[in-house]
Specification:
single chain; 340 residues
Length: 340
């Protein structure tokens, strides 16, 4: 399945044909090309939890080995939570009905800004509620979570505060607020206020105390973010919300560079297996980006790795100088011909 992702294979048959055409190059890996029927059966019946376990183990190894950091001075873990939808054909993926003539699955993702690594993913049908899955997350105390306004649920936000988890988000236009205090703000910040949010709710849940920071965007238009963190600078709060855009960049990168919008199988297990294999591939690519001394764009790295999938190269040296002259590996078992 990694060959499907990195080799841009369009079908199970293309995976098998591509591997069969590399007979001489895959010998050093000790692998054999499965038959198409065998691959199709495994793709539809092998539990995707196996790939999920590999993904989490790989993320833990990258974090422990490289110890990447985020761009801010504070030491708290910075995470972003968001969801992306993958459209499907309802007549083919009949288990993933979303609308009358449309199917869909959702990827609920948590991105760690230390290295921009995905650390959590849940794959659900398109009808699943984002906020219900968010409520099930178990975040360690001290975490700072950046979320968009689609996750604004005052009961959940209050529970995050009780768990000592900080959040940065935006309120909906329909959310009622009451300003109770205004603080002096630096020149880069329009206002820094303490507010009561949700003061006129019909469900009986009382308002919660939040901090509202107003800044100007790149076009000079003011926008407001709210948080339960009253210690960080107002400008830092605004930067944290802007940093949330990195998870949108991640979704776009994985959809453009890996096989995650079209699938080689139609069952739920086959789809989840392919999604987890894409996430495994992206973690490997992120590891190579962090390991390299020079800056690599993800698209360029994927393109060049695709050309060298079965080349025998020292990957560490190749990352720093991908166009260096290739040296064949020594072969001490080569016999010397004796003439005469």
């Amino acid at each position: 399945m990694l060959y499907c992702q990195l080799g841009r294979a369009q079908s199970l048959g293309e995976i098998c044909d591509g591997l069969n055409s590399l007979q001489g190059k895959k010998n050093h890996l000790g692998i054999e090309t499965p038959r198409k029927s065998t691959l199709a059966y495994a793709n539809g019946h092998r539990p995707p939890e196996l790939f999920e376990a590999v993904f989490h183990g790989l993320v833990a190894r990258v974090q422990n080995e490289l110890g990447p950091k985020h761009r801010f001075r504070f030491k708290n873990k910075l995470l972003s939570l968001d969801t992306t939808t993958i459209d499907l054909c309802a007549s083919i993926f009949d288990w993933a009905h979303f609308m009358r003539t449309k199917g869909a699955v959702k990827l609920h993702m948590v991105l760690d800004h230390a290295g921009l690594l995905p650390v959590f993913c849940a794959i659900t049908t398109g009808k699943a509620s984002d906020i219900q899955l968010a409520r099930a997350l178990n975040l360690p105390a001290g975490t700072i979570l950046a979320i968009d306004r689609g996750y604004v649920d005052f009961r959940w936000l209050q529970s995050l505060t009780e768990q000592k988890v900080c959040f940065v988000t935006r309120l909906r236009r329909t959310d009622s607020v009451q300003v109770i205090e205004s603080r002096e703000a630096p020149k880069t910040v329009v206002s820094d206020e303490t507010i009561l949010a949700g003061v006129r709710r019909s469900d009986g849940f009382g308002p919660i105390t939040l901090r509202r920071v107003t800044v100007l965007d790149d076009d000079g238009v003011p926008f407001q973010v709210v948080t339960n963190n009253f210690k960080l600078a107002a400008s830092t709060i605004a930067r944290i919300y802007r940093e949330r855009w990195q998870i949108e960049v991640f979704f776009r990168a994985i959809k453009q560079n890996l096989r995650i919008k079209t699938f080689v199988g139609t069952s739920a297990k086959a789809l989840r297996t392919q999604v987890w294999s894409a996430l495994i591939a992206i973690v490997i690519l992120k590891f190579l980006q962090l390991k390299a001394r020079t800056g690599w764009s993800l698209s360029r790295l994927v393109a060049l790795i695709r050309l060298h999938l079965f080349s025998y190269r020292d990957l560490t040296h190749w990352l720093d100088d991908p166009f260096a002259d290739f040296e064949s590996p020594p072969n001490d078992q080569q016999l010397v011909l004796q003439f005469g």
